[in-house]
Amino acid sequence: MNKKIFNIRKNYSELSKEVKSSIWYTFCNLMQKGIGFIVVPILTRILTTSEYGIYNIFLSWIQLFEIIVTLRLSWGTYIVGLTKHKNDRDRYTASLQSLSICIISISAIIYFYFEDFFYNLLGLPTNMVLLIFLTLYTMPAIGFWSSRQKVEFKYKQMVLVTLLMSVFIPILGFIFIFNMNENKYEGMIYSRLIIQAIVAVFIIYFCYKKSFVFFNKRYWINALKTNIPLVPYYYSLVLLITIDKIMIGDMISTSKAGIYSVAFSMGMVMQIFNSSLNSSIQPWLFRKLNEKKYGGISKNIVLFTVAIIFVNLILIALAPELVRIMAPVEYYEAIWIIPPMAVSVVIMFIYQHFVNIEFYFEASKNIAIASIAAVIIKIILNLWLLPIYGYLVAGYTTVISYIIFAIAHYLFMLKICYKNKCNEKIIDIKMILLSFGVFIIISSILTLGYINNEIRYIFILISIIVIFLKRNQIIMSYKNLKNKDI
Questions:
Q1: Cα–Cα distance between 375 and 401 in angstroms, integer?
Q2: Four-residue CA torsion sign, 199, 202, 205, 210
Q3: Which of 32, 38, 42, 291 has the greatest number of CB atoms lying within 10 Å of its CB?
Q4: Considering only CA atoms, which of 104, 105, 107, 97 is closest in space to residue 214?
């Protein structure tokens, strides 16, 4: 036993810092999303399907506000900036933190000055909008800090803070909920605001303590020039994942929106692996592109894609059992939405690599064009198909939209690579398409297994046997990977 523990420690110590970072970020996100996953069955049992639907529709509005009000300055372009300004990261971060505060403040002034207009447009009460703006003040600081920890591979602090927030937000939220007589969903919003505000205040204090820079013309102009064209992209991304709930609530019922939200929550749990892997891949990819070392990029991306496909197949295979655990019988229809949700998650992981390359070469306009087109197509498909086939079809309109999205980004990526004279093929699309095709076939078989459980259980058993028989090859592939520069 002691020998095994020693070997594990030895193997871990030999891992590159990038791989260690990836492991811990994945673990952190698993814990974070796992806690959120536990919260869902509690909410579905203390709220009606309609109330749960209203809650999720409200959260969708928060996401839509966040894009316009913060411009998401702490996202991909900030990571690119950290790479390009590695000798001036403190001043660069402080400058963008100040810019974020200014943008949010100006947005709040504009909103409340024209409060009547926005109330008629959105129908959101003033107290809720105030909570949204207060929450938005906390988000950039946490975003900047998190992104920098990832770039500098300081995963210990990142994991600790993230896990503490993940634990205290729901604990405080349920304390509020069980002491509220109405609008109980607001309890989670209050708890999130309080915990995030505490963390954000500390981050901003230490950020400015290192280097207090309120205004830097070059950094501000570059950030605005890069991020403003990305607003349609970010906005369309959020619309792609929120418009279904809003349209189902308006066109069918908030009850069906609640059922759809359960399936959506389960499907989006798989985003944990997407975000974890991308958080580790993105800085590495940017560094490789900056050094013009394109060899090995494609192989590792294909490998990670297969890993994402595998975890999503597990979700599809266990969907009926998971829905029974996650929600009462009223939500059981949600099982039929999970397979297309899982397919969408895989597509999202694939196209994110195309987008990362576009991000690096600052091709913001291309990103926006593809995003807007995908959203328009999705809205049209929902308007056409929802009244005919019901709310379940929304899962499949999502898949179609993401496929179009991915194709557009791939073409734009090829164009930008050609423009920047990338002599080597960065991503092998043939291997990715082959893996995706196998994924579609297997997921279809598993979905048919919802009608006949024997088919599904036999397939799961065969998969376990194959993995067991191929375990040595899998372990060998991992050992070969861990010693590479990724």
A1: 7
A2: negative
A3: 32
A4: 97
**Residues near 112 by Cβ (< 8 Å), separated by ≥ 6?**
126, 129
3 state DSSP class of 216: coil
CB 313 within 8 A of CB 443: yes
pLDDT per residue as tens, the chain (486 positions): 555 555 556 666 666 666 777 677 777 777 777 777 788 888 778 777 777 777 777 777 778 888 888 888 887 678 888 888 778 888 888 899 999 999 999 999 999 999 888 888 777 778 878 888 998 999 899 988 988 888 777 777 888 888 888 889 888 888 888 887 777 777 777 888 899 999 999 999 988 888 888 888 888 888 888 888 778 777 877 887 788 887 888 788 878 888 888 888 777 777 766 776 776 677 777 777 776 766 667 777 888 888 888 888 888 888 888 888 877 888 888 889 889 988 988 998 888 888 877 777 766 666 667 778 888 888 999 999 999 988 889 989 989 988 988 888 888 888 877 777 765 677 778 888 888 998 999 888 888 888 877 777 887 788 778 777 776 766 665 555 444 444
Q: What's the pTM value of the predicted model, to 2 decimals?
A: 0.68
In the chain, how many domains are there? 1
Q: HSE of 203 in the Cβ direction (CA atoms, 13 Å)?
A: 26
Cα–Cα distance measured from residue 45 to residue 478, given in angstroms and rounded to the nearest whole number: 42
- In eight-state DSSP terms, residue 88 is S
Gap between the Cα atoms of 80 and 289, Å rounded = 11
What CA–CA distance (Å, rounded) separates 100 from 215? 11
Token look-up 């297997």 returns: 442
Question: For residues 279 and 299, what is the distance between their CA atoms, to the nearest angstrom?
Answer: 18
Rounded Cα distance between 380 and 368, Å, is 19
18 falls within a domain: yes
Structure tokens given for 126: 């003033």
Q: How far apart are CA 316 and CA 341, in angstroms?
A: 9
Give the amino acid at 180. M
Among all chains, which residue has been given the structure tokens 């039929």?
A: 336
Q: Give the integer Cα–Cα distance in Å for 393 and 340.
A: 9
| Tokens encoding 108 | 């709040």
CA gap 315, 269 in Å, rounded: 9
Residue 4 lies inside a defined structural domain of this protein: no
Domain that holds residue 413: 14-482
Answer whether residue 3 is part of any domain: no
5 within a domain of the structure (yes/no): no
